[in-house]
Amino acid sequence: MPTLLRLLLSFSFSVVALPQLQAAASSILQASSSFSAGIDTLQNQIGYHFQSVDLLRRAMTHSSFSRDNNRALSLLGLSAMEATAAFSLLRDDPEASAAAVNGRIAEIAGFETCSAAGNRLGIEKLVRVASGTTASPAIVCGALRAMFGAISVDAGGIDAVGKVVLRVVGSGLLLAG
């Protein structure tokens, strides 16, 4: 008899908890669907479509949200931004001074430019952060840099990312200038 009673209690608990579990699952699916739609929109905005969308998902994941986050991709993205800035200046002016190259790097890869470009793309609404954490300018900039790093990995080099950097960040400089 005690086994039958435990079985009945277990069944009744499952029936009572089922609506709550279904509501939680529905909420998770809706958030996931919204995130996927945001990822699609972002790819359209930047003019680059990932072969491995998981790289972009990781780029839009802050370390407060998951151990599988954007930190390493952000470092690569910063380097790609700096290389793009230096290359674009030296391509146009092979005689540019080191100070001019440093200035161009600061202009393209600097924090304020980076966070402003990320906000123009709506990254502050897309980047996944822990509950109670807001998408600060630093988090937005890190996610944008990580996106550039993800493009480098996805494309197998920094050539593809240079065009996207100049399109995304360069367009903001042209608008501001």
TrEMBL record:
Pfam family, one: Ribonucleas_3_3
Occurrences of domain RNase III (ranges): 39-156
PROSITE patterns: RNASE_3_2 (PS50142)
Domain of life: Eukaryota
GO molecular function, one term: ribonuclease III activity
Residues making up the signal peptide according to the UniProt record: 1-17
Protein keywords: Signal
TM region(s), chain numbering: none
UniProt cross-references to InterPro entries, sorted A to Z: RNase_III_dom, RNase_III_sf
A Gene Ontology biological process term: RNA processing
Protein name: RNase III domain-containing protein
Origin species: Apostasia shenzhenica
